[in-house]
Amino acid sequence: MDVLHSDIRELWLVQSRDCAQEPLALDDEHARFLRAVHAGHGAHCRQYLAAVAHSACRAARR
User: Fold this and answer.
1) Which of 50, 44, 38 is nearest to 13 (CA)?
2) Cα–Cα distance for residue pair 54/20, rounded to 1 Å
3) Predicted model pTM
4) How many whole angstroms separate alpha carbon 4 and alpha carbon 41?
5) Does residue 1 carry a pLDDT above 60?
6) How far apart are CA 62 and CA 57, in angstroms?
7) CA 16, CA 46: separation in Å to the nearest integer?
8) Tens digit of pLDDT for each residue in 4-38?
9) Which terminal CB of the chain, N or C, has fewer other CB atoms within 10 Å?
10) DSSP track, the chain
11) CB of 21 within 8 A of CB of 46?
12) How far is the CA of 36 from the CAs of 5, 12, 30, 31, 53, in angstroms?
């Protein structure tokens, strides 16, 4: 299992603290991180919605 480096984790936490702001660029790992951090925030959380959309698009392409 890969463990996210603490510097990256802290950077992503700071960048994603505002639920009203969409993340600018996502890769699969970042999307998984955002889904985990913002999972309980509900439908108003743009961080969570963007991460779910990214993951859904990746799954549809496979």
Assistant:
1) 38
2) 17
3) 0.85
4) 22
5) no
6) 9
7) 10
8) 899 999 999 999 999 999 998 899 999 999 999 99
9) N
10) -----HHHHHHHHHHT--TTS--S---HHHHHHHHHHHGGG-TT-HHHHHHHHHHHHHHHH-
11) yes
12) 16, 12, 10, 9, 14
Pick 38 or 1 by higher pLDDT: 38
Look-up of token digits 């480096």? 5
Residue count of the chain, please give it. 62
Q: For residue 13, what are its two tokens? A: 């936490």
What pLDDT does 43 receive?
A: 86
Q: How confident is the model at residue 47 (pLDDT cuts 50, 70, 90)?
A: very high
Q: Which residue has the tokens 């970042």?
A: 30
